[in-house]
Amino acid sequence: MPGVGCRERLSAMIEVDRLTKAYGKHLAVDDVSFRVEPGTVTGFLGPNGAGKSTTMRMMVGLTPPTAGGSTILGVPYSKIPNPGTHVGVLLDASAQHAGRTGREVLHLGGMLMGLEERRVDEMLELVGLSEVEAKRRVGNYSLGMRQRLGIAHALLGDPQVLVLDEPANGLDPAGIRWMRGLLRGFAERGGTVLLSSHLLHEIEMIADELVVIGRGKIVAQGSKDELVSASGTLVRSLDLDTLAVALKQAELSFTHTATSSLIVQATGEQIGRAAAGAGVVLTELRPAEGAGLEEMFLQLTADDARDEVPS
Amino acid sequence: MSALTAPAPVDFSQTSRVRMSKLFRVELRKIADTRAGIWLLVAIVALTLLADIIFLFAAKSSELTYENFAAVTATPQGFILPILGILLVTSEWSQRTGLVTFTLEPSRGRVVVAKFLAVVAIGIAAVAIALALGALFNVIGSGVAGGAGDWDLGFAGARDFTLLQLMGIIQGLAFGMLFMNSAAAIVLYFVIPTAWSILFGLVSALEDAAPWLDLGTAQQPLFDTNHSLSATEWSQLLVTTLIWIVAPLVAGIIRLLRAELKSA
Lengths: 311, 264
Description:
Order of helices and strands of chain A: HEEEHEEHHHHEHEHEEHEHEEHEH
Largest sheet of chain A: 6 strands, mixed
Strand content of chain B: under 5%
Order of helices and strands of chain B: HHHHHHHHHHH
CATH topology of the largest domain in chain A: Rossmann fold
Radius of gyration of chain B: 22 Å
Strand content of chain A: 15-25%
Shape of chain A: elongated
Helix content of chain A: 25-40%
Number of strands of chain A: 13
Distance between the termini of chain A: 42 Å
Number of strands of chain B: 0
Structural class of chain A: alpha/beta
Number of helices of chain B: 11
Oligomer: heterodimer
Shape of chain B: globular
Distance between the termini of chain B: 29 Å
Largest sheet of chain B: none
Structural class of chain B: mainly alpha
CATH superfamily of the largest domain in chain A: P-loop containing nucleotide triphosphate hydrolases
Largest interface: A-B, 55 and 44 residues
């Protein structure tokens, strides 16, 4: 670990440095580097199997990296004393003993971290698990309840940093909004959040910084606004082919999307003029907003046919 | 919630690492706080009780001694204690709780030490229950059933029973770490010694070697009422313990320290 080098740049709460994990010849994580600054919620976005979970497991020392390293709060995770009180980790909400009650799961965590029982009650209340639900065994929990329990467990030790793998998975839209509020509040108080998701809209709702990963490699990173505004104008037409020819003649660059529209790197006016010149009817013309990011993401997902076929 | 105001690195000097006593208490609690764990503990007490009750009615009155009441509980306890040892480790994998356990205490070696201490404590508690129930039944036996009621168990007897149960539960822990799978560890724990014993029974040439290679054979003197093992018998116990308990334990620890914990 380049420990000294990391301490020179004090502001990064999480620093991942050329992290690589090979399983045989397959590179699950390939030279991944990123930083997470304090006070931000950073989304780690990628299709299933892109290497998100493996990266996060390496960050907390559960999986030994093939190369590279990472620090949290300036040191490798394994060097943090009583790490639960500094870094809240949720790697898999379903990874709890089915025969243990929700309250008992938190009680064990609190016992280990040296917390008072009151903290368990506070966290149960915070995530909206009732007294009755807390007494039920985790095996009888819905995925959404497990996620809430997992969030409660991650927050138990009052950490400065949260590392959450797919925490919104299994939550209903109201639950996702709740989580947004929770994580926003955490970040506003100076906390640092890294959360992963394979769903773009989920991440767009919650995160303000994005790290996009595909096939083990980082394909984009930056603020959400940056990534979104870089995406141009979306246009739909009754005659997409003729429009494409007209755009080429006007020397406007564009890409086809998977949803019968074009993303053009030009203003609405430029596109409108080109379309009018060619006599093409436009049915939609608007800033692409997340569409560019969405395209990139769909492309990533489509490329990964080994994982799932996009519907 | 955190009240971090400055993005400066965290001062860890105020946080001490998790104490071993805490890790130990957590691991001890994990044995008992699941449905399976509770039932296994209940089963240990119930079978100990049942063994004494059956013996009270089935044995001749001259056989109703403290030594025997204690001895009849050794076998049923010896069946269940290793399973507790196995599950304390394998559930970290099968229930994937290891993701949490080894995140809250990244030093896996310390977690292993805590688990080891926890199963030793459970083993000692089980023997204590056996000795207490044995005493109770010896009183009942002499009072109600006209039993002999002899009390001579002595330090050596208590030592041998404790040794026996601790060997079993530690072997369970070792098998759990080695196979990292509840079903495989439990089946192999019971099948391997049985198959091994059958092998020694069938091949007459191996008969002399049995006390040196077969743990069950080497443990027989621990059941003897005189509880005085010869130097050879101690050596045989040591050698078979090295083969069947220490070696799996070392291999299991190495595997656990190196294993990758996977999420979903």
